[in-house]
Amino acid sequence: MQTRMSGQRPQKRSLQEHAQHLIVLISLLRSTWFGYVAGLLLVGTLVPLDKVIDYFSPSPIFDSAPFALVSVLVALIWGLGPALFTIAIGLFVIAEFISPGLLTPNIGKDIAILSPFVVMQIVVVATAICFEVARRRILSAQQMTQAYARELEAANQRLVQVNEQLERANYLKDYVILRSSHELRTPMTTILGRTQQALYRLNRSGETPENWSALRQYLEIVEVHAQNLRILIDDLFDLSSVHSGQYPLRLTQCDLGSLCRDVIEDQQAFSDRSIELELLSDSLLIQADDKRLVQVLVNLVNNAVKYSSENTTIHVRVRLEHTHVILEVHNESTALSQEQLEQIFEPFYRTLDAENSPVKGWGLGLAISKEIVERHGGQIWAESSEGKGITFFVKLPISQDNPA
Amino acid sequence: MKDTSIVNPILSIDDGSSIPQTETERPYILVVDDDQSILSMLMSLLESEGYSCVGFSESQGVLPFLQEMGKRGERHLPALILLDLMMPKVSGYYIARWLSEHEPYNHIPILVITADARVRDKSNVPGAEDILLKPFQIDALITKVEHYLSRLPGGS
After folding, report:
1. Considering A86, A104, A130, B77, which has the largest number of Cβ atoms within 10 A of its Cβ?
2. Every domain of chain B and the residues it spans
3. Are B88 and A355 in contact (CB under 8 A)?
4. pTM above 0.80, yes or no
5. pLDDT (tens digit, 9 = 90+) per residue, A248-266?
6. Cross-chain residue pair B48–A186, CB shorter than 8 Å
7. Which of B48, B115, B135 sits opposite A192 (nearest CB)?
8. Does A190 sit within 8 Å of B35, measured CB to CB?
9. Residue B135 to residue A178, Cβ atoms within 8 A
10. What's the ipTM?
């Protein structure tokens, strides 16, 4: 079956090619310049034909009739110019070859003889041209209608795409609200529960040393969860404010290389991990909100520290590429699937491995980073393959003052 | 039915084969929540009220544990299950549905404790007996627990 299908395809293709060749040939044959040639050829054909008819049937017939019919045919197919040319050639041929004695020195007499023939031909040609013009107008109107229909279809497609994007954005917003509610309720459960539990114990058995000790323990738990709650609220506010553009970026000229150096120094001191920085250009100037950009750098380097094993090295590389600067943060953690790589920048997305790891988080850091990078006119993405770990890329436009 | 003898909290086990038979003969509550702090709070609350508890923070261990207890006999099954819904690996929805579809586990009342505000009614969770939305009042939790455990033979 496969063989048959593969055999049918070239045949289909050659049919299409034939059809295209035919269309090109027809448009060439219908062109005005070919109309002049055709008029000449048709009139030329009529001369021997007329001689042959005269030979077999010497009875007098109206010699000019075939010439008039040829002029009408040319008018219908090629229009006014070639038709008038055919009438003129026809007159010349009749006067010179068909009826050589037709013209006399008396011009008035010649006009009287020829004018009915010429006028009749011009009227017929004009009528044929009127029909042809009307037909072409209809064709042109049809083509315009089709072009409008295609434009409408394209506009409709664009609207469908915009609608899909809006639906997706709306879904994402609903999802963020739902997950936020869930994530806020979870630490709140511990805070409220432990507080009530403490009061419950105090009300039940009074201020005993055991209850004071339990109270201290509960307060410590409550503080941890209240702090987590504060971080979550800050992150949610951050995501919302960057996304909505509520706070404009404070763009200044900054050197990405020196920002990377500062962030890596801090992260190294904080985590005691090996982080290698490779700057492939002396000057990496960009127009950016340095505080926001540092937030992205910290998030990427911190993630690399958290999700890779302690004995591996994290590589940070910054290079120039035409009009952009590209930052790469690489770590040797477990590879991610294509689906995970696409979802990893969505709010509250955490891979199952991350969810089951001791590393706490809500999956908001990369979503915030994506918003920040995109507001700088840049792009952020991740690449991963088995045995090669994960690399996060940030592409930002370079500053005009950057020496190329 | 309050029982002051407390089974030590057991977290993240694959099945219950390591638990001595005598410990699961007494009525106990199975508590399942992937959030360790909520799990330990629920267990300390219930234990302070005199209930025995077994806790799971990794939901994939719940069904093997219950199957192991089911093999030992119906009296080794928990008297009540407090179940979180949104958990990685095995969701509370799956656990509740599976239990409701299999004998003898379908007799165990399931009290769902969830932070998912969409779950307003027990009809949203097939197999659930009742719903408690996080954060909850501990009075409400204790009242519900008392209600389900008092239905047991010999319950107060």
Report:
1. A86
2. 21-149
3. yes
4. no
5. 888 899 888 999 999 999 8
6. no
7. B135
8. yes
9. no
10. 0.81
